[in-house]
Amino acid sequence: MPSSSLGSYAFGSCGALLGESNFFSTEDGDDVDVSKVVKILSWRGDHTYSDWTIIVTTNEVDSRTYHVHKSILSVGPRSSQYFSKLFLKKGNGRGDRYNQSQSTKIELDGQDADLFPLLLDFMYDIKHTNDATSDDDESLTLLDVDDDFFTTFNAVSLRHLAKLFDCEGLKLAVNKFIGKDLSFKTGPVYLLQAHLYEDDRLIKSARRSCIENFSRLDTGAITRLPLELFRSILTAVNEGTKNRNSALDNINSKEEVVLSCHLSEVVCQYFEKHPDRINVQLLLELTNETVMPKIAYEPAIGFTALVRELNPNNVESGDSDEWRELVALCQRCAHAVVEEYGWKDFNVTAALEEYTYGSCCATSNDGSSSSTKLDSLLFATSFAAALDRAQSDIQTKVSNNHDGSTTASSSKKQMEQLQQQNDNLRWQNQSMKKEVDRYKDVLAGTKDELLQLRQQVKELEKASNEN
Predict the structure, then answer these.
(1) How does pLDDT run across 30-45, given as a tens digit for each residue?
(2) Which residues fall within 8 angstroms of residue 51, CB to CB, at 6 or more apart?
(3) Would the pLDDT of 357 be above 60?
(4) From CA 184, how far away is CA 206, in angstroms rounded?
């Protein structure tokens, strides 16, 4: 056999030489440019290979142009059915054919137009799409996004864009984020945004979150809501309070008092932030005593100021229900303030001077007093509250003094009563003893009579036998 020219070299499997490395490099040399291999399609930057143009306009006649790729927007788990249908044009019985227009114009509101680039970023996110590993819907890593992609403030708008452009992947991703992010801290934000976009499903979820966590909500956030939403939340909270009170039969529980005070603070701050929305009917509705039995002292001062700013011509006077409810509200506010600061701080002289020379005596051009009715009400209720508290304090002191001075006499009376009861028991015992002795005497006499009768019977029997 001819000798091998390979000498002593040993062969591995498949004829590969053992101890040798790869003889051919994939990257060395001048025939491969790695920088060209990693290049991917993007709507940002160079748009040489773009085959469609999207022009987004806003109500302010501001337009923005985006150069995109039909294959990215219309195919895959992040695609948009809106664009997929747009890129295809129905033929007349000849099936589908490509739309040759090359561009489309879309009108969006300002916030949606600002977030449209994020919609494109989601559809172009090749990084996560390539990570998809299976057909399992539960492990759709292809819908994952970076942690900072969604925020509390853009999620609702992106959810709207996802529905508008029929992007199921974005809908799933944003719904997943909202499900984790919705809490008592973010509830008012989601509620307001959902209201603006008329997103009924999200409105219900955010509203339920706000109602169930009302006592934990940020007051500033809840008072920024439109009246319709603010009213609906308070109405639901009030109904919940009524139901709990009815079930527990305890409207004075500590928990309910705390909730009522918090409710008074929220309502007062809402009216102070939106003075144009206040009217007598709304004020009485949101401060109804059945749902707000306790008013905190600071809101009480605020409500008093709000009452004073009401237009007296809009308040029904006389014996109307509205006037009686307004009187009751002022009384509760006055009592809350006096309870906190004490009746001694109520300056009767200053109040009388204010009532006599202040705004109470202000007259309109026709000579009639425009605010006397309300100012009289505030003066009367505050004075009455101070007087009630003073009388209550004095009565408490008198009661305490009376209790202290009568303690000894009360004890003496108790001793006398006990002694009397003891004497009565002794008398009853003596009476019972006498009664027992009497029955004994009666019994002894009865026994003697019985013996005599027996003797007589014997004698009669003896006499009868002899005869």
Answers:
(1) 666 666 655 678 888 7
(2) 69, 70, 102
(3) no
(4) 9
Q: For residue 56, list its beta bridge partners.
A: 64, 106
Question: Which residue carries 């748009």 as its tokens?
Answer: 47
Give 99: exposed, middle or buried? Use CB within 10 Å, 0-12, 13-18, 19+. middle
Q: Which amino acid is it at 452?
A: Q
Query: C-alpha angle with apex 268: 324 to 229, nearest 5 degrees?
Result: 100
Residue 125's SS3 state is: coil
Specify the higher pLDDT residue, 119 or 460: 119
Q: Distance between CA atoms of 173 and 154, rounded to whole angstroms?
A: 13
CA neighbours closer than 13 Å in the CB half-sphere of residue 187? 25
Distance CA 353, CA 275 (A): 28
Geometric angle at alpha carbon 305, from 315 and 328, rounded to 5°: 55
Tell me: pLDDT of 183 over 90: yes
**Residue 2: DSSP 8-state:** P
DSSP label at residue 370: S
- CATH for 51-181 (2.40.30.10, 2.60.40.2890, 3.30.420.40, 3.30.710.10): 3.30.710.10
Asked if 257 and 291 touch (Cβ cutoff 8 Å), the reply is no
CA dist., res. 43 & res. 121, Å (int)? 8
Between CA 377 and CA 293, with CA 341 as vertex, the angle to 5 degrees is 60
Domain map of the chain by residue range?
A: 51-181, 322-362+370-393, 425-467
End-to-end CA distance of the chain: 178
Please list, in sequence order, all residues whose beta carbon lies within 8 angstroms of the beta carbon of residue 12, skipping any fewer than 6 positions away.
Answer: 18
